[in-house]
């Protein structure tokens, strides 16, 4: 059986953690696309019903607050992995 | 929560509740003498407050655009926000006087508050509905008993 030196093992772990961080960052794309789609639909809704503008803005704000957090979860994990 | 239709009022209400809930972790950090945690938490909270304001401004700007343009605009703004979060978390990770996890929790505080607020509204609405049903049932029974 081949025995690897501690330096090589360290390097493998380090590179694996950086790759994992990169993969975790992909999770940040989804909320952006979703938020953009919601914003487009909100715009057309305001065009149809201008009197409901306030209600649309508040609903969209709450939606963006909730959906934006999933991207940050992945960011927290990625930064933790990179700077460990 | 659903009856607030003014974005500015909604923003103020969210911030008011967030700061109210944040008193608890700040007090715990102060009592236990964890100043790194306290600083990290306040750092995250301040940044999340500013990002909330930025988000409201972006939403209001996007509503005056065409559908495709608004979609692109909000998507691009989200990636700028994501970069800001990245910088904030990196600073919290590299700076020894800031606790990284506390900064992350500070960034999440607005989300936690909104979720808690929604949950409480849901529970309150469910309880009110049950109470109304119970009262109606009771009134029906007394009417039948009276006849």
Structure summary, number of beta strands of chain B: 0
Assigned CATH architecture of chain A? Up-down Bundle
Structural class of chain A: mainly alpha
Rg for CA atoms of chain A: 21 Å
Helix fraction of chain A, binned, reads: over 70%
Number of domains of chain B: 1
Mean pLDDT of chain B: 91
Spell the H/E element sequence of chain B.
HHHH
SS-based class of chain B: mainly alpha
**Main sheet of chain A, how many strands, which sense, barrel?**
none
Mean pLDDT of chain A, to the nearest integer, reads 90
Give me the number of helical elements of chain B.
4
For the secondary structure, the number of strands of chain A is: 0
What does the overall shape of chain B look like?
flat
Keywords:
heterodimer; A: 84 residues; mainly alpha; F1FO ATP Synthase; 3 helices; B: 147 residues
What does this entry look like structurally?
The complex is a heterodimer of chains A (84) and B (147). Chain A has 84 residues and is an all-alpha fold. Helices cover 83% and strands 0% of the residues of chain A. Chain A has one domain (6-82): F1F0 ATP synthase subunit C (F1FO ATP Synthase, Up-down Bundle), CATH 1.20.20. Chain A has three helices and no strands. The model of chain A has no long low-confidence stretch (mean pLDDT 90). Chain B has one domain (7-120). The mean pLDDT of chain B is 91. The A-B interface holds A 28, 31-33, 35-44, 46, 53-58, 60-62, 64-66, 68-69, 71-72, 75-76, 79-80, 83 and B 1, 4-7, 10-11, 14, 52, 55-56, 59-60, 62-63, 65-68, 70-75, 78-79, 81-82, 85-86, 89-90, 93-94, 100, 104, 107-108, 110-111, 114-115, 118.
Summary, kept brief:
The complex is a heterodimer of chains A (84) and B (147). With 84 residues, chain A is mostly helical.
List the helices and strands and how they pair.
The complex is a heterodimer of chains A (84) and B (147).
Chain A: H1 6-25, H2 29-48, H3 53-82
Helix pairs in contact in A: 1-3, 2-3
Chain B: H1 7-32, H2 35-62, H3 67-94, H4 100-146
Helix pairs in contact in B: 1-2, 1-4, 2-3, 2-4, 3-4
């Amino acid at each position: 059986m081949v025995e690897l030196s501690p330096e090589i093992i360290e390097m493998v772990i380090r590179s694996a953690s950086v790759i994992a961080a990169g993969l975790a960052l992909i999770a940040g794309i989804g909320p952006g696309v979703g938020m953009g789609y919601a914003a487009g639909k909100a715009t057309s809704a305001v065009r149809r019903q201008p009197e409901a503008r306030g209600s649309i803005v508040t609903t969209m704000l709450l939606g963006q607050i909730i959906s934006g957090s999933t991207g940050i979860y992945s960011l927290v994990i990625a930064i933790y992995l990179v700077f460990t | 929560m659903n009856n607030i239709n003014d974005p500015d009022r909604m923003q103020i209400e969210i911030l008011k509740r967030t700061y109210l809930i944040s008193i608890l972790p700040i007090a715990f950090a102060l009592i236990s003498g964890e100043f790194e945690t306290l600083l990290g938490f306040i750092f995250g909270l301040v940044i999340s407050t500013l990002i909330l304001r930025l988000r409201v401004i972006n939403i209001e700007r996007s509503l005056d655009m065409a559908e495709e343009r608004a979609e692109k605009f909000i998507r691009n703004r989200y990636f700028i926000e994501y970069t800001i979060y990245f910088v904030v978390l990196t600073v919290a990770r590299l700076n020894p006087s800031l606790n990284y996890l506390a900064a992350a929790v500070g960034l999440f505080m607005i989300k936690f508050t909104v979720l808690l607020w929604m949950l409480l509204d849901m529970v309150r609405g469910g309880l009110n509905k049950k109470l109304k049903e119970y009262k109606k049932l009771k009134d029906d029974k007394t009417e039948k008993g009276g006849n």
